[in-house]
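Record now logged underneath.
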Amino acid sequence: MKAICLLLLLGTISIRALAGTPGVDDEARARQHWILQCQGCHRPSATATPGSTPSLADFVARFLSVRGGREYLARVPGVATAAVSDHDLAELLNWTLYRYDNAHVPEGFKPYTTEEVGQWRRNPLRTEATSVRSSLVGTMPESQHIQ
């Protein structure tokens, strides 16, 4: 116990690391789904494919702070049509938020649930995804407009 307290004080581990990622039952499964479903376009570091796929790194959780942003993340084409179950997709979304943009996950964030993801992905965004994204980014405070 003393070792854990010392590590926390030194900042080498976080409380979240001890407790696991909220909304993620299996970190390895979520990572595997990232590799198989997302990494091809968003790259291993979530930094995008220039000219076609936006970066998620240090940005994706900012959508949670604007109206419609939570739903948007579950409805973007690559997410909504991913070949995984609703449960695994909710887990993947939660894992992605904490893995690639932990600093911007809002205080009190409630992890995505199987039910909400299942509902939203039945109505995926298609050609309008880019304009919806632009509109949502436009409602973010100016300090968040890094992309």
Q: What stands out?
A: The chain has a mean pLDDT of 88. Helices lie at 2-10, 15-19, 27-42, 69-75, 77-80, 86-101, 114-121, 129-139. The longest helix spans residues 27-42. The CA atoms of residues 11 and 89 lie 31 Å apart.
